[in-house]
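Batch 3, record 17
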Amino acid sequence: MNQSDVSKAGRPRGSSRAMLQEAAAELFLEQTYASTTIEQITRRAGVSRNTFFNYFPAKSDLLWVEVDSWLLALPSALKAALAGGTAQATQPTDAIRHALLALAGGIPAGDVPWALTQTELMGTTLELQASALSRFTTHGAVLTRAVERAAGRQEGDLLAQAFAVAALAASCAAALAWAGAGVARGSLVPFLDAALSPVCDGFRPLLPTR
Amino acid sequence: MNQSDVSKAGRPRGSSRAMLQEAAAELFLEQTYASTTIEQITRRAGVSRNTFFNYFPAKSDLLWVEVDSWLLALPSALKAALAGGTAQATQPTDAIRHALLALAGGIPAGDVPWALTQTELMGTTLELQASALSRFTTHGAVLTRAVERAAGRQEGDLLAQAFAVAALAASCAAALAWAGAGVARGSLVPFLDAALSPVCDGFRPLLPTR
DNA sequence: TGCAATTATTGGGCTCAGCCCAAAAACTAG
DNA sequence: CTAGTTTTTGGGCTGAGCCCAATAATTGCA
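Prediction for the assembled complex:
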């Protein structure tokens, strides 16, 4: 209600968020994510350990800051695609696909999230996919509800849930392949399209427009 | 090489594994998963705290013991389905589907894993799906490699990965809906079939037999 | 019977993430 | 200058997960 924008009173933030991210990025390169402690990060950033938790709920959030910033636009992208916009968005699965592709189009090829670069630390690639999925949870709920609304399904409908989560999983696989493609990876869009289209194809006849 | 079956020498295990599971189940009912400590579990089971880690790598594994036991049969089920068996297993996606359905057929309708019953503790249902996926990682790698082999794809192929992880995600959604269906839930098979079939349909033309 | 070798259990101690709380710091509005 | 607000900080605490060395219990062999 009120915490949006600048609040007028109180002690100003030390603008520490960016500093924490920078310090963490440096340390993740020097050492690894696993062997970097929160205390090291905050010491390098010049703040107290407790201050860290004023900016990030957990250490692992540092791995996903880029992804989180991407997905900030997810609700609006979904809304635009489902509202029909000007294009073909009549079918729910296609609307979801277009929304996700539009999001991917806005992602600079340069900044790959830490979570995708430090693969070796997090075990198998599939384990990382799962970890990514777990991160996508919050935004994924938005996706599920969008599917339910667009297809006229009631809340908790199995087909809607299955499609939403399968689409998310395929997207994660695409992002991982994209990140693993090296410096000349180009845009995420073709990767995402290749992984997402089959899922949409499969669910399209079962999830007609309401 | 040698740790399989009973090892002949050494101090015998206190048969504590089942006791630990029982003690944990009791405490999860009395209190919740979150507010139950490992020390409480081991005290009730009559063993030392350190002994816990001789049987489970982490506390969260207690939530997934049932699932893990189910998925023990995954490799053999995959092998059977891919070897053609007697049935229709010519197509990779169908082979995977049949293997998973066969697995689901062997699951008693009674024992729902803790991870699925303690939903409220773990946040949203989607978050739980993701958590489940993260558990499936180990077995999911098996699935991915099976797809790669059956479809003649090279390791790390995007389509194979996307299909494997999408199928896993849909399976999780199915299991969750099944667990949420209450006492009269019946077999997992129809749930799994409904969620899995569209995924297979979508990928079938793109993943032909090698 | 006794002596290795082997394996499980145990106690002790340690690091680190995450949380809580209360005091102090820095700012704004009156 | 004062009261209210927000952030920072220090202190301390719990609990998971790990490591290590000591001990208990068993088998195989001599």
